[in-house]
Amino acid sequence: MKWIAIPPDRAGRVTVLVLVAAAVLVPLASFLPADSALGLSSYTVSLLGKYLCFAMLALALDLIWGYAGLLSLGHGAFFALGGYAMGMYLMRQIGDRGVYGNPELPDFMVFLDWQSLPWYWWGFDSVYFALAMVLLIPGILALVFGWLAFRSRVSGVYFSIMTQSLTFALMLAFFRNEMGFGGNNGLTDFKDIVGVSLQSPQTRAGLFAVTALLLALIYLGCRVLLETRLGRVLIALRDDEARVRFLGYSVASFKLVVFVLSAMIAGVAGALYVPQVGIINPGEFQPLNSIEIAIWVAVGGRGTLHGAMLGALVIALAETILTGSLPELWLFALGGVFLAVTLFLPRGLMGLRSTS
Amino acid sequence: MSSVLDTDHGVILYLENLSVSFSGFKALNELTLSVDDGELRCLIGPNGAGKTTLMDVITGRTRPDSGRAYLGQRIDLLQEDEATIARLGIGRKFQKPSVFPCLSVRENLGLSIAGNRSPWQAMRYRASAAERERLDELLVTSGLADERDRAAADLSHGQKQWLEIGMLLAQEPRLLLIDEPVAGMTPQEVERTAQLLRSLVPERSVVVVEHDMAFVRSIARRVTVLHEGAVLMEGSMDDVQADARVREVYLGESC
Question: Which stretches of chain B score pLDDT less than 50?
């Protein structure tokens, strides 16, 4: 039985190859003079890094939507939580270089006249602790939420609405100053990561390379996972959940495993995103952001992983270009693309490839 | 509570006084029925007689308002969910072919082979030589050896039904519940299906719900007639067709 094959197929090999090549070439290009033909400014490097974070987020959603048939419209929440965990670590790295020069407390806490660090900020001085939280916080939230939802057999559009409410509730909570995450300003003014300056071109090149390589690794890992019997069960339950149940599989536990995994990948994407854009605020929890992820996946094509990644890159690039030149048109263009894809390309950009 | 299937007294399925009502409508009304180990039993009855509800209760999909349901001597079916009941040894074939369209015939059968049901086991699963052999047997039994690598979506209606029966067999069930297997089949396919079902007993027990009387006559020794959620009568096909009450409620209306 050919259920495990590495690398999976041609598109899979191309995806991994492109990501690895980008991890090497983009940092190299950033060390050339910015005005030379192949030179990239560190701004561009971070922009590309941001796109790759979106691609990782799209991959996370495709894993549950394209394979297990679970459309989460709240995946931005897991992304933002991963981002906040990283942001908290970056805040602790500022030390006494804040505006108020307080070595114990971040600026916004001094501003709120807090006397001591809240207990849930403990541990974020350590990068290892923060990295663990990047995985654990989205993972545990997905575990609890998923357990409640799947145990009660919430599925289809009801599941989508519940995930949407989840991210909306978290947005409202994070907007409150008393939560201790910087309110509507969020966390920003970061200085260093693991002791090196976030502003230096080398750090930015390094962050890009780490993002590209991690994305390649996660992509490969998911492809391998989906080639196992677990992957077949996911596809099976997407297409006929009752049959899977009557075959003796516990549908809820399979959904739970893949939902938690997907939330953790989204968390990693958020953690890589924050140091490259330099800010995390409650706006990331907006329901609109989560819907946009679903558009990326739909545009790229569900159920291939690389399709979703491509969709994210294409739309993010279009967004950068259009919001630069015609900002008022962007949302219309996004809506139009989504309609066009739904009507004419039900299998997304990947559908074009297999018909040609 | 024991999960060991014990058929010492020759009974595989025992249902007593089962009642189910849906907003006032009594789908099952104090239904009592038992099926012997190794038997091929047909259930007939007009629409709304409670045949599908009965299958739903046995497989854990619907909870009855009252009554008891046992698999063998000891397993109380009313305490378990669908997945557990399936693992205990009851396989269910739906009326509409219910196979996984995007997976190949092999993969459909492979997923059904007993064991390795947790996500963790599924992740690490590699088919053993014995399981590959079993898979080949199943392909032959279900008559799909030449179609093994085709996607299930591309099979004919009859082939999908056989694939689904093959998937049930892969679970190594003791009792198979089969809902209208020959609806929409060609005469040749019906004949092939009758052979397939007859070959399953007496190693396993089979309960078939069917409307096609010729088909029922060709496979069953004992037939149970359901009417308004209860057993109207039980006996050979000849007894059933000779019975005046049955003629009145069922045969008169559909033949």
Answer: 1-2, 254-255
Model confidence, pTM: 0.89
Give the number of domains in chain B: 1
Ranges of each domain in chain A: 10-355
Q: What is the pLDDT of residue B211?
A: 81
B17: in domain: yes
Q: Does residue B183 fall inside a structural domain?
A: yes
Distance from the Cα of residue B195 to its chain's centroid: 16
Residue A68 to residue A239: CA distance in whole angstroms: 9
Question: What pLDDT, in 10s, does the model give residues A284-299?
Answer: 999 999 999 999 999 9
Strands B222-227, B230-235: pairing kind: antiparallel
Which structural domain range is residue B64 located in? Answer: 11-254
Q: What is the rounded average pLDDT of the residues A27-52?
A: 89
Domain containing residue B120: CATH number: 3.40.50.300
Residue B5, in any domain of the structure: no
Please report which confidence band the pLDDT of residue A83 belongs to, taking 50, 70 and 90 as the band edges.
Answer: very high
For residue A354, pLDDT beyond 70 = no
**B94, A249: Cβ pair inside 8 Å?**
no
Nearest one of A58, A97, A100, A119 to A262, comparing CA atoms: A58
Q: In A, which residues are within 8 Å of B111 by CB distance?
A: 229, 232-233, 236, 247
Structural domain contains residue B6: no
Question: Which of A246, A249, A250, A251 is best to mutate for the B interface (most B CBs within 10 A)?
Answer: A246
